[in-house]
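Ticket reopened. Same input as before:
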Amino acid sequence: MANELKGVQVFAPATVANLVCGFDVLGMALQQPQDVMTMRLRKEPGIVISHADGYDLPVEPEKNVAGASLLALMEEYSEKVGFEVIIDKRIKPGSGLGSSAASSAGAVVGANYLLGNPFSKEDLVRFAMNGEKVASGVKHADNIAPCIYGGVTLIQSIFPLNIVQLTAPPMYVTVVHPQIEVRTSDARQILRKEVQLKAAIKQWGNIAGLVAGFLKNDYDLIGRSLEDVIIEPVRSILIPGFDEVKKKSKEAGALGGGISGSGPSIFMLSKEEYVAKGVEDVMIDVYTRLGIEFKTYVTMINYEGAKVVSEK
Ligand SMILES: Nc1ncnc2c1ncn2[C@@H]1O[C@H](COP(=O)(O)OP(=O)(O)OP(=O)(O)O)[C@@H](O)[C@H]1O
Ligand SMILES: N[C@@H](CCO)C(=O)O
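Engineering reply: fixed in the latest deploy. New output:
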């Protein structure tokens, strides 16, 4: 039954995909930043998108990731419906913090609520993956799943979709976003298509170690497993200051970290808040010296996914 309310406000969190070693399979939701969306049911079918931010993103439904995700949802809904969507992005597009996923996930979470929740979370991930296809050319769910489920998620399989929610201990996350844009589509194109067996063995050992570390609340194991021998060596050259930030953050006590999603943001995990703040000082120092504009966040893992926060 469609909700008779005029509209809802939805918050959709930033996410860190890959979590260093888990390319396309692991992701985590952050408490900050979060996109804000206002959604209403329309009397007429169709999608009307507008923006309350200065990013000049497309308004055509099939070009905007929110619209593409809603079109997929509408195709499976039993009746003809229409939505109005106002997007206020607080997660900069192309940041590597799951900006596209937040719009895709937020749109389908809001629509589901307005329609009286006919769809499961897994359905919503499936719909929102159509947005990722628009943004990066490929359907992947490592930002979408944590954005919808919250916490840390594992995409065990994408076709058929199998999402595993992982428990994870509280962690502080320090993020630096150098203000350069790295498009996910470009950052995927530069990757090698073949992997050496030796590197693959190292990588799947690290993925298994990281998942075990989360489930066992074992911070040392988490730290030891935050290593990527396949993707990071190729992509990190797109991010000035990457090696220095990583090295000095670990010296400051961080468990470890790496490229957030496809970059350019870098994230580091810490067990304690004072360490996370010391890591932020490291990041500020590196990017100030490099003369590159940047933004930092000290935040935490977010155990909640995108949600309706108020009815309007
Ligand atoms: N509503 C939207 N929000 C964000 N990006 C959008 C939206 N609609 C279309 N796009 C397009 O998607 C691209 C941004 O997605 P991209 O995946 O490159 O960045 P990201 O989501 O910040 O990074 P990552 O997926 O690595 O975390 C841009 O080309 C942008 O124009
Ligand atoms: N797994 C994706 C996340 C970015 O959207 C990548 O690294 O390309």
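The mean pLDDT is 96. Residues 197-215 form the longest helix (19 residues). Please confirm and we'll close it.
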